[in-house]
Please model this.
Amino acid sequence: MIDTVVFLLLGENKLIGAISLSDQVREESHDAIKNLKSMDIKCWMLTGDNEKTAKAVSEELGLDGYYAEVLPHEKLEKVKELQSKGEFVAMTGDGINDAPALAQADVGIAIGSGTDVAAETADIIIVNSNPKDVTSLIGFGKATYKKMIQNLIWATGYNVFAIPLAAGVLLSLGLLITPAIGAIFMSLSTVIVAINARFLKLKK
Model:
């Protein structure tokens, strides 16, 4: 449970009011962590907050671990430490103190509402400041890679099949592609690759 701090306002030895402050974990953060874990991605938190607060947030979100009371250069060292263990590290941050770690990470992701320093250092900027956009980003990246492989297989397969025919390798069997037909097939291949890439827009 995240602690709540209450400030009491006194006037003439009487209680005239109270102000209650507490850190609130955004609902989107729960969904984001859940989605990341479903992708077998480990989720750690680096924070300058105290141990008690960091532990409470970590437990509420179900993180794999956390580092509390870390300074900017210590965040950088933690990222290096994870990388030295063979981990591929994606770092998300929004402040000046996150900039060194964002630069060191394999992928630095800055929150759009954060500082200019963080945005300039990061590789990617999330405009809407929604934690769930991180999972959408990963999903889109995987879909893009899949399309690249599909198009590569298609283009390679086409060339392996068409080039020998155009060269007359199977002429003895009566199989030959004329230059005109070859040009048509090449254009058709390009169109198919382009259409396949456009299907990325249909992925939600």
Remarks:
- The mean pLDDT is 84.
- Residues 166 and 181 are 9 Å apart (CA to CA).
- The helical segments are 27-38, 51-61, 72-84, 99-104, 116-121, 132-166, 179-198.
- The longest helix spans residues 132-166.
